[in-house]
Amino acid sequence: MPEARGDIREIVGQPVFVPLYKLFLVYGKIFRLSFGPKSFVIISDPAYAKQILLTNADKYSKGLLSEILDFVMGTGLIPADGEIWKARRRAVVPALHRKYVMSMVDMFGDCAAHGGSTLDKYATSGVSLDMENFFSRLGLDIIGKAVFNYDFDSLTHDDPVIQAVYTLLREVEHRSTAPIAYWNIPGIQFVVPRQKRCQEALLLVNECLDGLIDKCKKLVEEEDVEFGEEFLSERDPSILHFLLASGDEISSKQLRDDLMTMLIAGHETTAAVLTWTLYLLAQHPESAAAIRKEVDALLGDRKPGVEDLKALKVTTRIINEAMRLYPQPPVLIRRALQDDQFDQYTVPAGSDLFISVWNLHRSPKLWDEPDKFKPDRFGPLDGPMPNEVTENFAYLPFGGGRRKCIGDQFAIFEAVVALAMLMRRYEFSLDESKGTVGMTTGATIHTTNGLNMFVRRRDLSAVPPPSRAADAVSAGYAFA
Ligand code: HEM
Ligand code: RET
User: Fold this and answer.
1) What is the pTM of this model?
2) Cα dihedral value 451, 113, 325, 310, nearest 10
3) Angle (CA) 96 102 106, round 5°
4) Ligand 1 pocket test: which of 334, 405, 416 has the largest number of ligand atoms within 8 Å of its C-beta?
5) Residue whose CA is closest, atom 7 of ligand 2?
6) Are 402 and 408 in contact (CB under 8 A)?
7) How does DSSP assign 14-50, residue by residue?
8) Does the C-beta of 265 come closer than 6 Å to ligand 2?
9) Which of 169, 248, 283, 439 is the most exposed place for a label (fewest CB within 10 A)?
10) Would the CB of 320 count as within 6 Å of ligand 1?
11) ipTM of model over 0.95
């Protein structure tokens, strides 16, 4: 197998997927990368990715990924393997049923409208706002409501629980990129301040989750509702409520692990998608105009309803293309449990593999002008939405195979609602005085210096009211 001998200095200080892309152009679709005793197999080919994620999925575990995420997710759905994963996937997937996802759409609109009050303040003051931070808070508010019916309200205030969630997220990023797993040294959490803070944050968030679990258990005991498929309570439509009402017999530690997994998986990812979409729109005013045209014609100031989501095709395609250029996370991690064969190369059991989604998404062999933002590359708007199946594993924004994201539909709807509403009401332009945006990585791709943008309210006086009648009527006028 081609072997890239890395000099650690080439990698330190830049997001790992960037040097991996350069090496891919030199060494090709499969190569080994070694640093001293550490060695990884880097995969940048759709057929190989399909083999790992789908055809031979049995031969792989999450390996390093579960080691990185163990402290916060334990045996939650992302790091879990084997029988635990199978049982948890079977229990959790039904909670994100069609009716549930549909019922969340209204809440997405409410949260985006609530975010409007922050944007209005910045529009008035003329001071630029870090939109990465804004989207992160919006994502946290949404996922808190969706997973355990908790209102973080992080868009308008800070509290110790919100800070603790951020401490945990930063620790995930830190562990994703640290060269040595120093946190495994026994007792380190009492000595290293960073690890001490992480333990404290973990205790606080666990306490909060335990409180929410207890509260929801009481609700389930009190309520007199029959549990069935597509169970959804108007009073508390959360995933937690579904799981408790289902009578699923699991330990409270496992339940907490799953909640924490969804809190983290559903928060940073969508926030990053919205951040990079807005970044791309700032450089592609024609696409920003296309979203506005679509939203003006369909919604006006109305919050999108479920039926509108099918019609917001331009907005959706722009998000699809942003996820191609900035996949979250940029690499998928696996460990081979058995030997596996990739053409003439054997990957021995025990190998750590990185599927570089970044490389797949930017491969010159797979995409025309791969580095260009071209939302119409996915074909006609009335065609299928691109995913790993339509693109035969060359496009993996949500992974693929049996470990594919369970929140994909939820996340796309969330991003479409937020983007449509914000683009209708505001104009955004980069504050160049704050330096270049830059990229850094942990688990998802972050900016280096924030996505600092000037926000202006759009002048809607000359914009005619919506001409296209929406099939569904969504109650309430956002931003009215
Ligand atoms: C798995 C991406 C939103 C829950 C994954 C994977 C990817 C991904 C790439 C596969 C990981 C792997 O194969 O190692 C995203 C992106 C999102 C998003 C880009 C937003 C734009 C969400 C949301 C939730 C969620 C909102 C929860 C409500 C999960 C879970 C898994 C997962 C539980 C693990 C599934 C399993 O292993 O069986 N996600 N995700 N994600 N995601 Fe998402
Ligand atoms: C998230 C949620 C979505 C699914 C997965 C996650 C974790 C990814 C990690 C990635 C590490 C990436 C690295 C990139 C280097 O360039 C984002 C928590 C799987 C930990 C090391």
Assistant:
1) 0.95
2) -170
3) 120
4) 405
5) 443
6) no
7) S-THHHHHHHHHHH-SEEEEEETTEEEEEE--HHHHH
8) yes
9) 283
10) no
11) yes
